[in-house]
UniProtKB/TrEMBL annotation:
Biased composition regions of type Low complexity, renumbered to the chain: 158-171
Name of the protein in its database record: DUF6114 domain-containing protein
Keywords carried by this UniProt record: Membrane, Transmembrane, Transmembrane helix
Keyword check for tRNA processing: no
Stretch forming the signal peptide: none
One Pfam family recorded for the sequence: DUF6114
Record field: transmembrane: 29-50, 57-83, 89-120
Keyword Ubl conjugation in record: no
Source species: Streptomyces althioticus subsp. attaecolombicae
Region: Disordered, residue numbers: 135-192
Amino acid sequence: MSAETPVQSAGTFTRLRLRFRDWRGTRPFWAGLLTLLSGIPIAYFPYATLKLGHMSIAMATTAGAGSLIIGVLLVTLGLTMWFQSATRVFAGVAAILLALVSLVISNIGGFLIGFLLALVGGALALSWAPGEPPVEAAGEHDGAGAPTGEAAPDDMPQDPAVAPQFPAVPFEKGEEDGEADGVRAAGGHRVG
């Protein structure tokens, strides 16, 4: 191969991995994953039967149907966080509430495994915020923070070390202690 030979396209696995990474970065992926996983132990344990030799241990509760409903709802909320990221606040609050209800209904929230996963997943969904799309690839910025080649807004000072100036606003004399000139800045500071 020579230096002029164009680089061959990336393999299928690399392309799929990069597409998945881009998809994952535009939604609360980890919140959805933890919430989805939390539904499994909550729904499973009330119906599970553990066999130790000839002895069977059943962890069934009277609220087995409630546990199944909570588990299915948590799985659905996890998928909602992935595919409808605009509803992440609702899904996060609902996941936290279902986690708290599962403590009472479903074997202490799936032996605390499902409870903790749902609690953390809901909190992550509430705290996630969509990122800003990049304006330029590898932008160079001038000292004012505006990208090079673009004018900074008029209300933004060009020098970041300069403090913003408040306009003078008249007020009644004697409104504040000892201010007799009748002028103060809009921010509440005395001008003079």
